[in-house]
Amino acid sequence: MTQNVTLIGFGAIGRTLLQRSAGQPGLRITHVVVPEAHAAAAQANAAALQADIAIVSAVPHDTDLVVECAGHEALTEHVVPALLRGTECAVLSIGALSEPGLPEQLADAAAQGGTQVHLLSGAIGGVDAIAAARIAGLDAVTYTGRKPPSGWRGTPAEALADLGSLTEPTVILEDTAREAARLYPKNANVAATISLAGLGLDATRVRLIADPTVTENIHEIEVRGAFGEMRITMRGKPLPDNPKTSALTVLSALRFLHNRTATVTI
Ligand SMILES: NC(=O)C1=CN([C@@H]2O[C@H](COP(=O)(O)OP(=O)(O)OC[C@H]3O[C@@H](n4cnc5c(N)ncnc54)[C@H](O)[C@@H]3O)[C@@H](O)[C@H]2O)C=CC1
Ligand SMILES: O=C([O-])CC(=O)C(=O)O
């Protein structure tokens, strides 16, 4: 039986996800939720990719699965109500979970609806290893996020440095993951994800760097604990439509969707 999927958000991630999910057996993206003001543009873009897609302002009650790729507001506006109705949801705007009370709100809504909310690994790998290692106890988790200056446009980094004329790597934040997610919500999903898998938002140390010498989004993660040590560097190519977002983010959502219907999941 085909599972009907609703996307929340139709920006760089949503568009690429719709494009790449075409023909995936057992799944069909039937609806896309966007704010009213973006509906006409989304309709034109989506119809070019899939003629029968419906652009809507709320998640339909009969959808089987929701994938959120919209931003912080969409979690309270759309994901919480869907969970309360018992609809399983997968979330990419993990930075939003730095807002006090929101993780508990999502968990309570899923419990009330008798369903699950999945926090996707997004732009990075190794989330499974961090979450497994946590069971035996972690000592330290640190994260360094490095992006080209264009990846920091429209953020508080603009007030700290002249992004257009940087000649060397410039640290724009050195703090906890909670502070990183509060100040740079669209650039701290990774910081929030590794915190939630590991030591939590207040005990995870984060450095964010605007680096004119790189063209990729570079994520360095170091973890120490009873399990041993782990060091990962991801050099993610950004999506053409949004330099803040690594292309792997879309692939992580596709993997999640694939595993919904695969006989062997990995
Ligand atoms: N977990 C991870 O590793 C990553 C997560 N992200 C997050 O994924 C989200 C989407 O990223 P992009 O597609 O690159 O952003 P984008 O800015 O290109 O697109 C956002 C889309 O969401 C829609 N939207 C905004 N508010 C909405 C609401 N309340 N309800 C429904 N739709 C709404 C907009 O109309 C737009 O279509 C962002 O929150 C971003 O921070 C991005 C990269 C990595
Ligand atoms: O690389 C990405 O796609 C996004 C990113 O840094 C983040 O939100 O932490």
From TrEMBL:
Active site: 219
Catalytic class of the enzyme: oxidoreductase
InterPro entries named in the record: Asp/hSer_DH_NAD-bd (IPR005106), Asp_DH (IPR002811), Asp_DH_prok (IPR020626), L-Asp_DH (IPR011182), NAD(P)-bd_dom_sf (IPR036291)
Top-level taxon of origin: Bacteria
EC number: 1.4.1.21
Domain Aspartate/homoserine dehydrogenase NAD-binding span(s) in chain numbering: 9-119
Catalytic activity: L-aspartate + NADP(+) + H2O = oxaloacetate + NH4(+) + NADPH + H(+); L-aspartate + NAD(+) + H2O = oxaloacetate + NH4(+) + NADH + H(+)
Aspartate dehydrogenase domain residues: 166-253
Binding site for NAD(+): 123, 189
Family statement drawn from the similarity comment of this UniProt entry: Belongs to the L-aspartate dehydrogenase family.
Xref: PANTHER family: ASPARTATE DEHYDROGENASE DOMAIN-CONTAINING PROTEIN, L-ASPARTATE DEHYDROGENASE-RELATED
Misc. remarks from the entry: The iminoaspartate product is unstable in aqueous solution and can decompose to oxaloacetate and ammonia.
Protein name: L-aspartate dehydrogenase
Originating organism: Hydrogenophaga electricum
Lineage: Bacteria, Pseudomonadati, Pseudomonadota, Betaproteobacteria, Burkholderiales
Name of the gene this protein is made from: nadX
